[in-house]
Amino acid sequence: QVQLVESGGGLVQAGGSLRLSCAASGSIFSISHVGWYRQAPGKQRELVAKITRGGNLNYADSVKGRFTISRDNAKRTVYLQMNSLKPEDTAVYYCNLLGIGYEYWGQGTQVTVSS
Question: How many other CB atoms are there within 10 angstroms of residue 12's CB atom?
Answer without folding.
Answer: 17
